[in-house]
């Protein structure tokens, strides 16, 4: 994904969507990409949360400042 930077990986799609909406409310473009990992022959679903490259630092502050939520 050119122009985008992965900010975090999450197992819970709902939590990823909540974080994406939090970023959007603060004027930061964010998107979610589904991923699959093979581990011990079991498929584990998860998602990656991406933000525009120029917005990565402010997005990190917003997300990790409220991590205890």
If you had to describe this structure to a student in words, what would you say it looks like?
By secondary structure, this protein is of the alpha+beta class. It has 2 helices and 3 strands; from the N terminus they run βαββα. A 3-stranded antiparallel beta sheet has the order 1-3-2. The longest helix has 13 residues, at 13-25. 16% of the residues are buried.
Overall 3D geometry? globular
Strand segment tally: 3
Strand content: 35-45%
* Uncertain spans: 38-43
Q: Give, in spatial order, the strands making up the sheet with the most strands.
A: 1-3-2
Largest pleated sheet: 3 strands, antiparallel
Observed structural traits:
69 residues, alpha+beta, three-stranded antiparallel β-sheet, 33% helix, globular
Question: What is the topology?
Answer:
Layout: E1 4-10, H1 13-25, E2 30-39, E3 42-52, H2 56-65
Antiparallel strand pairs: 1-3, 2-3
């Amino acid at each position: 994904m050119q122009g985008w930077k992965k900010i975090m990986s999450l197992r819970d799609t709902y939590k990823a969507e909540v974080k994406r909406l939090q970023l959007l409310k603060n004027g930061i473009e964010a998107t979610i990409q589904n991923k699959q990992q093979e581990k011990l022959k079991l498929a584990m679903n998860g998602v990656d949360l991406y933000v525009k490259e120029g917005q990565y630092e402010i997005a990190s502050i917003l997300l990790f400042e409220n991590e205890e939520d």
